[in-house]
Amino acid sequence: MTKDLVGTALIFDLDGTLVDTAEDLAASMNHALGDMGFDAVAPNEVRHLVGHGARRMLMRGFEISANRDASESELDEALERFLKYYQENIADHSRPFEYVIEMIEGFRARGAVCAICTNKREGMAVQLMTTLNLDHLFETIVGADTTVAAKPDPAPVSLCLKRTGAKKAVFIGDSDTDIKAAMATGLPCAIADFGYGPLELAGEATAVFANYREAASVIENLLLA
Ligand SMILES: O=C(O)COP(=O)(O)O
Ligand SMILES: [Mg+2]
């Protein structure tokens, strides 16, 4: 295999892009809500609450369940209960999306490096990838608490670039937050339309793909351009 992609990087968002985590996130959120005496939120609704970190997801879940805003102390309690349960059940159902690992292995064989840039806390992201036995594929994992600000701020994306040492990179994500973060860093972005969204800015993305077989050629073209 020719190492024609040395000096390039693929920077992945995590939830909804690399791994389908919605079911475990929903179960953990509903566990916290249930413990506090509130109704569960339908897992399909929880998908769309992911992408801005656990606290924001719980805040929105609370609004749906209780039909009112959560107080700061209720949110603190929900977050504590959520994190405890999630840490113990982080990969009960979470699995990488179809063909993404094969795609990553193919790019790595050609000399590209991969990184994760997520709005999960760094510790949670590392735990998830380690539990799935996928951590060895990534040069670095940057979370919402790794740099001064979370996506859509460019800081975490810039840190991924710095740590990979790449001259050329593509950001791969599933939401407007990812599109904004990639644009703010000056990177092209390829967006998974099967992720958690929202995708109101899809028109600003460099490319939108429907599965990772399609994504592979889109990303290859962007890295070789
Ligand atoms: O909201 C989260 O917890 C993380 O979401 P992300 O991996 O899509 O950035
Ligand atoms: Mg995402």
UniProtKB/TrEMBL annotation:
SUPFAM superfamilies: HAD-like
EC number: 3.1.3.18
Pathway: Organic acid metabolism; glycolate biosynthesis; glycolate from 2-phosphoglycolate: step 1/1
Enzyme class label: hydrolase
GO MF annotation: an example: hydrolase activity
Superkingdom in the source lineage: Bacteria
Reactions it catalyzes: 2-phosphoglycolate + H2O = glycolate + phosphate
Keyword Hydrolase attached: yes
Keyword Ligase: no
Record InterPro entries: HAD-like_hydrolase_sf, HAD-like_sf, HAD-SF_hydro_IA, HAD_2, HAD_sf, PGP-like_dom2
Stretch forming the signal peptide: none
Keywords assigned by UniProt, alphabetized: Hydrolase
Cross-referenced NCBIfam families: HAD-SF-IA-v1
Membership in a protein family: Belongs to the HAD-like hydrolase superfamily. CbbY/CbbZ/Gph/YieH family.
Name of the molecule in the record: phosphoglycolate phosphatase
Species of origin: Hyphococcus lacteus
